[in-house]
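[job 4471] stage=fold_predict status=RUNNING
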Amino acid sequence: MSGTVRTVLGEVPVARLGVVDAHDHLFLRSPALPGEELAELPPAQAELAAFREAGGGAVVQWTPRGMGRRLADVVAASRATGVHVVAATGLHQAVHYEPAFLERTMGRLAELFVQDLTTAPVRAGLIKVASGFHGLDAHARHTMAAAAEAHHATGAPVAVHLELGTGALDVLDLLCGALGVPSPSVVLGHLGRSPDIRVQLAAARSGAFLAFDGPSRRHHATDWRLFDQLTALVEAGHAGKILLGGDTTTAGARREGPGPAFLVGDLMPRVEREFGADVARAVFVENPGRAFGRW
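[job 4471] inference complete, writing structure tokens
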């Protein structure tokens, strides 16, 4: 594969990414999750080291602006472990911020996103935004408009937190319809949390990438439905649109596991047994390169 991915250590050829955890968090904090911060370097570095030991090559961190990205620590962990890390700019739902932060930033989001993607000391490689539950509120529409503007200026992909997996088609109507973001530049997250295969198939037909994530005690309900959903997508010819990630968002989830290494040691062999080596390589190696790369 040609093309490059922008990591926290610079541009990396897509072919060098290896096995990718397509949605995770090394660091994260939110007033909506008090006491559950991911804010320490040693545990984050240990997660990356275990991922590397299991055979992983790259992690895409979806933590957006104002939620404790700790980019200097991300750089340190990437250097220490040899795992490539892609960082995010963007903005989450309003509940994850203090009002003063939103007051300072909402009027210049596109400018800030573009800075993070082009001139910041540690540059982001994607734009993270979020929908609401079964719909798009004014905050979501505003942040997505800014994300689309930043995409058009930089070509960066737009990754979307779907609240409880809902609202995928509304998001696509806005981002790819009204705002003109090409659907292959959109990654829809958390689809497994609303296992509506008809919606998933429609989203895949649009050309967007579909991220299934969250194998943890906190999101256990997604685990046992995962392979039924993957089967429907693979059988419909959409293996090239599937991404898998861990999405560890809290200290409790990190303690409980299983962590990013589980993707390599457990899920990847299961995908290969179920669908064959070509599909496993697509899901864990080729699709992330196409979703987050620049061509």
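[job 4471] summary: The CA atoms of residues 54 and 264 lie 6 Å apart.
[job 4471] exit 0
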